[in-house]
Design a protein that fits this description.
51% helix, binds flavin-adenine dinucleotide
Length: 308
């Protein structure tokens, strides 16, 4: 793993730095490049604007690795409010949820029960819950929870999960998820993983990404391909074209603030695009992972900061 990438990922777990940044006005200003705002209203405004550009949204109320049960319930309350507001305003938006924000590191049962009530709520309002994937220690428990919730009639179809192409296990996981009829978002993976569990080289991750995408596109289920990598996007389009797969059979997903021109271009070409819109005051780990993906972002942010 390149040194800068692992440095930013290590910094994303630094609590004192996190506290300092999240409470400084400079930090909040910098975060606005990748974060839609500090509160629910900011997020809904952005969702509306993104919808007006012909793209769907998934909303992420930022936060992860909470340390108490009341915190987990408070985090879930925000998502419940979101589901009601999205329905009331008729937005084309669903939600993305991290199980560590729902208390997974405190208790599996707690996270499962909170995720279950969110999924039932989403089912009732015609929405959908995407469970984000976190580091590889949590892959199995995350998949187990998603599978159990998906099996409940009052949640069925309203929950999906994320698979990371950098993990060796992902092909087997995708085979199982397709067999279970569970919707997948495929991404490359954003955490620092050892070579025992993940491909260390980008070329292998990319090759696996293309292999896994073809499995998803061949299945009868509506899946999502999440990447800003133009080579991956071109490979997905080629595969779909060569195999008579309709553009409406899947969606591309990208992060808020990244490759906006490409997002619009895909819409013009007739593809479904969903933008991942994060918001909230707990933005620091998310922001640092975005710097890890592209350390040149630091220069870009600094230049814009001093210009404004
Ligand atoms: C919608 C969505 C949801 C995601 N959910 C998860 C999840 O649940 N779990 C998880 O582990 N990861 C998640 N990720 C992150 C993902 O794993 C990658 O870390 C991230 O998408 C970067 O990989 P890439 O596919 O864009 O390709 P890369 O090879 O990393 O990048 C390709 C090109 O895209 C551009 N680019 C990529 N990242 C950035 C950036 N931060 N800033 C500016 N330009 C950039 C650059 O031009 C770069 O050259 C998600 C990503 C997306 C788009």
């Amino acid at each position: 793993m390149p040194v800068l990438r692992s440095t930013f990922i290590a910094l994303s777990r630094n609590r004192p730095l996190r506290h300092f940044c999240e409470n400084s006005s400079v930090g909040v200003r910098l975060s606005s490049r990748f974060v839609a705002g500090m509160n629910l209203d900011d997020a809904l405004h952005v969702a509306e604007a993104v919808n007006q550009q012909g793209m769907a949204v998934t909303l992420d109320s930022l936060g992860e690795s909470i340390t108490s049960e009341p915190e987990a319930h408070r985090a879930a309350d925000i998502y419940h409010q979101l589901l009601d507001l999205v329905a009331a305003r008729k937005l084309n938006a669903n939600i993305s949820v991290k199980l560590t924000q729902m208390g997974l590191e405190l208790s599996t049962a707690l996270a499962e029960s909170i995720a279950g009530s969110l999924t039932q709520h989403a089912h009732a309002t015609g929405s959908f819950v995407r469970i984000d994937m976190e580091d590889s220690k949590l892959t199995q428990v995350t998949l187990d929870i998603v599978r159990r919730l998906h099996a409940q009639p009052e949640s069925r179809g309203a929950i999906g999960v994320v698979i990371q192409a950098y993990l060796y296990r992902s092909q087997a996981d995708i085979e199982q998820l397709i067999a279970d009829g569970i919707r997948v978002r495929l991404c490359k993976g954003a955490y620092k993983e050892p070579a025992e569990v993940a491909f260390p080289h980008k070329s292998d991750v990319d090759a696996n990404f293309i292999r896994l995408t073809s499995m998803l596109l061949d299945s009868p289920i509506y899946h999502a391909v999440a990447t800003h990598d133009e080579a991956m996007i071109a490979a997905v389009k080629d595969y779909a074209r060569n195999n008579a797969i309709e553009p409406g059979h899947f969606e591309f997903q990208m992060l808020y603030g990244i490759k906006r021109d490409l997002q619009r271009k895909l819409v013009q070409e007739g593809y479904n695009v969903r933008v991942y819109v994060p918001f909230g005051s707990d933005w620091y780990p998310y922001f640092m992972r975005r710097l890890a993906e592209r350390p040149a972002n630091v220069i870009f942010l600094a230049r814009n900061f001093f210009r404004s």
